[in-house]
Design brief:
This protein is mainly α. The protein is built from six helices and two strands, in the order αβαααβαα.
């Protein structure tokens, strides 16, 4: 990586500190009448930092249970399957032409005609496959980015409603000895323990689904469920963060 901003800042601060140390010494050599500079901030007490109130949220669980994400994923998979079927048709046609080509005499007009057709279909298939990969990769990234921004905004609203000044991402997925991935994820996680009373995952899911259903989402049984006891019914109704 290139030189980090922190490294540049450290170098800059080091040079600045040197100037402050060397400057007065040179000034004193040139002029003995050096007086102490009044400190404008002298006597001012710094404001006390807010006491940390840390909450937790399982982003993976939020995504899996957010109705809008389910609908977007369903539409994405349907569009991808449709494109895949289009490409399969091209490949099937190319295979049929290849079979017909195998029955013809090389060098004849019909042979050349079908050979060119096979080449054309293969080129169209390859170009379509590459275009589909780029198109769906971009579409998937845009979908995830949109959903994540909505999740993040709801986390902020609920955290502020509950007077939290930090929210840490965790995983509430159970650890299973038969699932090596779950074990490795747990070991690599920076969070060893979190008080479940400060977990806002269900709040985020409930309020996201409630907002989605109220605006443009289809009605679902999960979104009509009661809010968790002692939790905000819909912080978003207050408007803004």
């Amino acid at each position: 990586m290139v030189l980090s901003t922190r490294g540049i800042l450290a170098i800059g601060l080091g040079v600045t500190g040197l100037a402050f140390l060397v400057g007065p010494s040179l000034g004193q050599q040139q002029d003995g009448r050096v007086s102490k500079t009044a400190n404008p901030t002298a006597g001012a007490m710094p404001s006390s930092p807010a006491a940390p109130f840390i909450g937790t949220v399982d982003i993976d669980s939020v995504f899996k249970n957010y109705e809008k994400f389910k609908v977007a994923s369903k539409d994405f998979n349907a569009a991808m399957l449709a494109r895949k079927n289009e490409l399969m048709k091209l490949m099937s046609e190319a295979q049929e032409e290849a079979q017909m080509l195998s029955k013809l005499t090389p060098g004849t007009e019909d042979f050349t005609k079908h050979e060119n057709r096979v080449t054309e279909l293969k080129a169209r298939h390859e170009a379509g496959r590459e275009q589909a990969q780029r198109e769906f990769a971009l579409r998937d990234a845009e979908n995830v980015a949109t959903i994540y921004k909505e999740v993040q905004a709801m986390v902020v609203r609920i955290a502020q409603w509950r007077k939290m000044n930090y929210v840490v991402k965790i995983s509430n997925q159970p650890i299973s000895g038969t699932d090596p991935n779950s074990v490795m994820n747990a070991i690599q996680s920076t969070m060893v323990y979190a008080d479940p009373r400060n977990d806002i995952t269900n709040d985020v899911i409930f309020n996201l689904n409630r907002m989605y259903t109220a605006t443009s989402g289809p009605a679902s049984k999960t979104t009509n469920a009661a809010a968790p006891a002692g939790r905000p019914a819909n912080p978003a109704q207050s408007g803004g963060n």
